């Protein structure tokens, strides 16, 4: 699934001028330097230590910028919209301030919710929280449908012993139920399941909402998860004002000054929102869905889109009938370095991966990773890829946004991306965290001009030609012919099998009727 374009893309090749006034005066993250951990103001020493234990010794620029607006001096006064390149460290940018601010909490309840579009991404983000939250006594939960709903519920809700006196809010919760987690990382579908069906699951104490990969999440309604979350976290006062005539409009500003939701008789701050992406939407109607409070826009440089600094882009020009040969020759020159090959659909992902595996002994382990597969198989593949047991992943777009795999040095666009957003997210699987990386795009001659225009939208004027020696192509021809024959056979037998299954299920249907 490719990234659709937006109206404002007309402006993309020039300095971007957003429609929304608050987006026109952003904090420019490119002007901020990295900051050694020892110089990060107010950083809890326990978190400092936890970060150092994972090898982190400084804050990346986007983390410095978000820290300033959350912990100090900004104190979470404004909602944040962060547009920062792939691999720039956005996850820790929001995870660290949330964990620090919740570290002083007196009672356990669900205070922070992070929503991501896919299960693998949610698992990845949970891992980031899990490296820092336990250091200050916080627990992180996961609602993604990885385990059975019953197992997930037992991880999220606990039944404390009444004599321990832990039931703090008898008015609102059934006395024996309370949250086991302070922070929840969720996908929208499972989140909605818990909201609708899980006894004791409540968002009424929520203080922080993070919408990661915002543009992707806003594109899909997912059972109206966002309006539901906003409604459930809205103060009773505020929901009252919402339905009042405009003369009461000024009263809404109560929210700006903090105390708006009751929490066991005490005032409680408003729900703070942080929304992030490497390609954040600037579409006012989409952003309006988030009901942002006095938002602050943090972006990197003046262009709308930006590629990682250490990324080198190359084009590989080849005839369309020879693409698989060029791909194999390219993979051979990469000598088993970790690589992701992108295609434009789940079907072509499957076909290409099958074909590559018929190429005889390439001495490269190649696997498919796509939405056609079962989640358990995808997770297994991803684990093996992370561990280096697989060197090449052939993938469709839908699965790879935000994916952070250590050591991916190369990305190959087997099919040319139609949109700059797609190019950014694909290329962004390499050159992460300041590391070097290459992105190769296979193109026919006729595609070159359009591709050049596409890259200009991300201020990328240096995309050199990468040439593949014709001898390499010629030497692969015989084996390619054999591989194609095998692929044909495999496609035929798969089609036959599918047809058989369809016939079987329709016959069973008839009998049932
Ligand atoms: N301060 C830091 N020092 C060193 N490494 C870091 C730091 N912050 C983050 N990283 C590493 O940088 C990598 C990229 O981080 P992250 O996944 O948060 O990027 P991102 O901006 O969310 O990218 P994307 O837009 O693709 O989702 C991760 O491997 C992470 O561990």
Automatic annotation (TrEMBL):
Keywords recorded for this protein, A-Z: ATP-binding, Helicase, Hydrolase, Nucleotide-binding, RNA-binding
The Helicase C-terminal domain, residue ranges: 326-476
Entry-linked Pfam families: DEAD, Helicase_C
Reactions it catalyzes: ATP + H2O = ADP + phosphate + H(+)
Record-annotated Helicase ATP-binding domain positions: 71-298
Gene3D superfamilies: P-loop containing nucleotide triphosphate hydrolases
SUPFAM superfamilies, A to Z: P-loop containing nucleoside triphosphate hydrolases
InterPro entries: DEAD/DEAH_box_helicase_dom, Helicase_ATP-bd, Helicase_C-like, P-loop_NTPase
Enzyme Commission number: 3.6.4.13
GO molecular function: ATP binding; hydrolase activity; RNA binding; RNA helicase activity
Function: RNA helicase.
PANTHER family (alphabetical): RNA HELICASE
Family as reported in the entry's similarity comment: Belongs to the DEAD box helicase family. DDX51/DBP6 subfamily.
Notes concerning its domains: The Q motif is unique to and characteristic of the DEAD box family of RNA helicases and controls ATP binding and hydrolysis.
Protein name: ATP-dependent RNA helicase
């Amino acid at each position: 699934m490719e990234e659709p374009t937006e109206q404002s893309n007309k402006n993309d090749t020039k300095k971007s001028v957003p429609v929304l006034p608050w987006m026109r005066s952003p904090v420019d993250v490119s002007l901020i330097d990295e900051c050694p951990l020892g110089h990060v103001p107010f950083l809890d020493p326990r978190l400092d230590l936890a970060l150092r234990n994972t090898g982190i010794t400084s804050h990346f620029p986007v983390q410095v910028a978000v820290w300033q607006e959350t912990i100090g001096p900004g104190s979470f006064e404004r909602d944040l919209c962060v547009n920062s390149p792939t691999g720039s460290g956005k996850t820790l940018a929001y995870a660290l301030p949330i964990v620090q601010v919740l570290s002083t909490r007196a009672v356990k309840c669900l205070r922070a919710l992070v929503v991501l579009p896919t299960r693998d991404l949610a698992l990845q983000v949970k891992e980031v929280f899990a490296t820092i939250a336990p250091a200050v006594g916080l627990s992180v939960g996961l609602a993604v449908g990885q385990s059975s709903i019953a197992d997930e519920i037992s991880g999220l809700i606990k039944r404390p012993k009444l004599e321990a006196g832990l039931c703090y809010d008898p008015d609102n919760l059934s006395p024996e139920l309370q949250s086991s987690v302070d922070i929840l990382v969720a996908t929208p579908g499972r989140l909605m399941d818990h909201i609708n069906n899980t006894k004791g699951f409540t968002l009424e104490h929520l203080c922080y909402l993070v919408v990661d990969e915002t543009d992707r999440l806003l594109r899909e309604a997912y059972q109206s998860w966002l309006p539901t979350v906003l409604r459930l976290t809205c103060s009773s006062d505020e929901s009252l004002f919402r339905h009042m005539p405009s003369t009461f409009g000024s009263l809404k500003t109560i929210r700006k000054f903090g105390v708006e939701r009751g929490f066991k008789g005490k005032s409680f701050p408003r729900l703070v929102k942080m929304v992030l992406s490497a390609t954040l939407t600037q579409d006012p109607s989409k952003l309006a869905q988030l009901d942002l409070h006095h938002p602050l826009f943090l972006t990197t440089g003046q262009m709308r889109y930006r590629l990682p600094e250490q990324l080198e882009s190359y084009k590989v020009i080849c005839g369309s009938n020879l693409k698989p040969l060029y791909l194999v020759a390219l993979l051979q020159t990469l000598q088993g370095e970790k690589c992701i090959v992108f295609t434009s659909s789940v079907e072509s992902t499957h076909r290409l991966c099958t074909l590559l595996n018929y190429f005889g002994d390439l001495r490269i382990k190649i696997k498919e990773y796509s939405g056609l597969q079962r989640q358990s198989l995808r997770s297994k593949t991803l684990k093996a890829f992370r561990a280096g047991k697989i060197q090449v992943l052939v993938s469709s777009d839908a699965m790879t946004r935000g994916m952070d795999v250590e050591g991916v040095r190369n990305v190959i666009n087997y099919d040319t991306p139609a949109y700059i957003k797609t190019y950014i997210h694909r290329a962004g699987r390499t050159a992460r965290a300041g590391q070097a990386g290459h992105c190769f795009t296979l193109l026919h001659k006729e595609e070159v001009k359009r591709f050049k225009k596409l890259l200009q939208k991300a201020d990328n004027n240096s995309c050199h030609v990468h040439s593949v020696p014709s001898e390499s192509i010629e030497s692969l021809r015989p084996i390619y012919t054999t591989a194609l024959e095998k692929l044909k056979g495999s496609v035929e037998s798969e089609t036959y099998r599918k047809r058989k299954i369809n016939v079987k299920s329709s016959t069973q249907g008839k009998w049932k009727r």
